[in-house]
Amino acid sequence: MINLTAKQICAVVNGELFASSSFQDFTVSEIITDSRTFFGGSNAAFFALTGPVFNGHNYIAQLRKKGVQVFIVSNKNFIEDKACYILVKNTGFALQQLAAYNRNRFLQPVIGITGSNGKTIIKEWLYDLLSTELKIVRSPKSYNSQVGVPLSALLIDNQYDLALLEAGISEPGEMQKLAPIVQPDIGILTNIGDAHQENFTSMEEKLNEKLKLFTGTKKLVFRSDRSYSKIIAEFCSQKNIDPINWSLENDSAPIQFKSKVKSTDTEIEARINDKHYSFTIPFTDDSALENACHCFATLIALDKNPSDFLVQFSSLQPVAMRLEIKQGINNCLLINDYYNSDLNSLSIALSVLKQQAAKSHLFKHVILSDIQQTGIETAKLYAKVNQLLQEWGINKLTGIGKDLYQHQHIFQLESEFYADRNAFEKHFLRSNYSSSAILLKGARQFELEKISALLQQKAHQTVLEINLNALVHNLNTFRKLLQPETKIMVMVKAFSYGSGDVEIAQLLQHQNVDYLAVAVADEGVQLRNAGITTPIVVMNPEQDSFQNIIDFSLEPNIYSFQLLQQFVKAVKEFGLNNFPIHIKIDTGMNRLGLKTEEDIAKVIAILKKNKHLKIQSVFSHLAGSDEPELDDFTKEQFNRFTDLSGLIENAFEYKIDKHILNSAGIERFPDHQMDMVRLGIGLYGISQTGLALQQISTLKTTVSQVKTVDTGETVGYNRKGKVRQHSRVAVVPMGYADGINRRLGNGLGSAFVNGQEARMIGNVCMDMLMLDVTNLEVNPGDSVEIFGPNISISRVAQLLETIPYEILTGISQRVKRVYLQE
Ligand SMILES: *Cc1c(COP(=O)(O)O)cnc(C)c1O
Q1: 666 lines ligand 1 (CB under 6 A)
Q2: Burial of 191 (0-12, 13-18, 19+ CB in 10 A)
């Protein structure tokens, strides 16, 4: 980690220093940009990054309380006495400048990795292969963004022998900013797929953008049998780069690989000139093969003797890219993060643990393995870990590994220690774990996944996996259609369209959306109890929920004169003033809302002489924003809304927000965004116009049993599944009680198993369904996708002649929601 004085940092970023002289020589040894994952310590400097969503400046006060004293800011108004401020034009750019400066001080080789897929896996595998002989610093997790790359480069210092940095881009112009920070000596270009293609005019443009990373590189590793490989080869010869290209197809490539897939692994043979090397990897898929070939070629680029590494290839492990949250035994919640183990990722994981525990008032328990190769002296390291655990209010620590065992006296919280995982398992008692949020965090060699297996609830293996990163992507995709000042209300009714409630709301709150909207007050109460402070609108406020609405600061949708009278009365009894309400106008849907001028006049009359309520917004809902044939009607709705909302607007002196667009409306009529929009289905990944949204949910389970069925036999209830040939049938533990529509049975619906689709055979049962897997290689325990990356929700909806909304919200609550977050 860097060690610079505030004055030096100021010089590197061309800033203006606001600090008393005592601060100027203050040493900074840690850079932070995210207040949530800051774990205390007094030598940190905070970069107040700003973006369309975030304003880091808002967190300065909070961080000063936590002991941070150096702030890099772009807004003068936040500068105060008694801390050190460095004023710059653009804090993001300043962060990149500092990172580039730090990179330049590093004299050992840097490997820079970019491409559409495989970056993180290759980085982790190279780390596994090389870390026995080299001290390596690498990007945490998949920190490869405009902020992630600088933060990774700032971890570098001269105690390391090698740095592995990944760089990802999604738009033109981004690599130019990352290249000076990475400045790789050796480059790896993994492949060019269609990720983020929407932002580029052609594949070639995207490739050229990625190649900018390698302008000053000495050697470049790439696969030479792709349609675009020629361009890379030309780039190498122009820039005087030594090409380390390899091929699985071409016998004249400098490095040639041949592969043979066995039942659980792949045998690979490499040929370089007249030398042959054989090794295996414990994977059978094409992308693992390609990643392994990249790693092998990188060893050549590093002038290593491949023979020294061949055995290690056979123990490469799958890389869990994300933190995983699962239901555990006895009302426990498991947070699995055994991807890597360093202080940085520990504090990120602890922040997730705290959030998750808070929402159900769970005990906070950390199961941690030894943290290795941090470059920090062991006693100091664990003192820091102890401090971290205290700061995040952790209730109990279970330490696993020799180092932790030896340093157990350092820890000042309830704790237990085991020299290794076996010792832990010997003492393991299920009944010792209940109502806890448990973080499992450690280096891969400790195999904490085996502990996770002991703690995991196994009864029902069917899960709805929600990708929180995809959700943020979708939110930002819609944001791009809006003016910066347009507010966003996100509809989280019906458990966030079936995606689970609290987790989604928490994420949205963190993303600074302006409002959340629920259908009924109970849903709002649940969010408040989980610590949501974002304003919440209740679309259908019932009279007996007024007490809750007032107690929990929810904001009712007032859709009729009668409801207004009742609500005024309730608020008056509580003696409250200016209680926020939202008024709904019916412009043609003929559902809830004030429909006529007379209705509106009556409402205005009451509100005019009433100090108890304040109109926050006036809105209406479109009946057919997704249907081009109804556009004339939609336009009538717009006009009617302008007229009726104008009556209200003109009657009051204060500003009242107006809004009418739902997701399809935002996509198709952005000109009518007014003061706010109401985002629903789009956030959850469904677009009406082919917007590049990501699917956020995957409904999946595992095969229970596979059996052979002969011609003439039948499958399932009422003998509906007639078998016409000698067949194999997979039984899957998911049925209509889980929300699988029974009409999908008997060949209408299908599921994705082992890379192929298999049709449902026979009737769907309450808790099970059967798949025809006659020509597929399927075994018990194999993963089955009902919808997700391979089978879209829209397609399932089409088969059932319904809309995606019904599919999403129909997944029953007994299906566990599992959240993935990078
Ligand atoms: C559900 C709902 C929305 C969101 O609609 P989508 O089509 O899912 O974007 C917007 N406004 C109101 C009043 C709603 O009830």
Answers
A1: no
A2: middle
Q: Which of 491, 540, 582, 688 to mutate to test the pocket of ligand 1 (most atoms within 8 A of CB)?
A: 491
Nearest protein Cα to ligand 1, atom 13: 621
The boundaries of every CATH 3.40.1190.10 domain in the chain are: 106-313
What's the 787 CA to ligand 1 centre distance in angstroms? 23
337 CA distance to ligand 1 middle (Å): 36
Residues with Cβ within 8 Å of 364's Cβ and at least 6 positions away in sequence, in order, are 353, 354, 357, 392, 393, 394, 395, 396, 436, 437, 439
Helix (H) or strand (E) holding 468: helix 468-479
- In the chain, list all ranges with CATH 2.40.37.10: 697-821
Which of 344, 388, 385 shows the shortest CA–CA distance to 143? 344
CATH superfamily of 323-458: Mur ligase, C-terminal domain (3.90.190.20)
Q: Please state which CATH class domain 468-684 belongs to.
A: alpha beta
Which candidate, 153, 155, 228, 163, places its Cα nearest to that of 189?
A: 228
For domain 697-821, the CATH class is mainly beta
Instruction: Give the pLDDT confidence score for residue 67 in this predicted structure.
Output: 86
Question: Is residue 192 in contact with ligand 1, taking CB distance under 6 Å?
Answer: no
Does ligand 1 come within 6 angstroms of the Cβ of 539? yes
Name beta bridge partners: 187.
112, 220
Residue nearest to atom 12 of ligand 1 (CA): 621
- For the Cβ of 687 lying below 6 angstroms from any atom of ligand 1, the answer is no
Provide CATH code, domain 4-96: 3.40.1390.10
Ligand 1 atom with the shortest distance to the CA of 584: 13
Give the strand pairing for 219-223 and 436-441.
Answer: unpaired
Q: Does 106-313 carry CATH code 3.40.50.11740?
A: no
Q: What is the pTM of this model?
A: 0.65
What is the DSSP secondary structure assignment for residue 237, as one 8-state letter? Answer: H
CA neighbor of 487 nearest in space, from 94, 777, 52, 169 = 52
Centroid of ligand 1 to alpha carbon of 737 (angstroms): 26
Catalytic residue set:
493, 717
Give the CA-trace dihedral at 183, 184, 185, 187, to 10 degrees: -150
Ligand 1 pocket, residue 662 CB under 6 Å:
yes
pLDDT of residue 142: 77
Average pLDDT along the chain, 822 residues, taken 10 residues at a time: 88 94 86 77 88 83 88 93 93 96 95 93 94 89 88 92 95 94 97 81 92 96 94 96 95 93 88 94 88 97 96 85 77 83 78 81 94 80 92 94 95 95 90 92 85 76 89 95 96 91 88 95 91 94 93 96 95 91 97 95 93 96 96 97 96 96 97 97 92 93 93 93 94 95 96 92 96 91 91 95 95 88 74
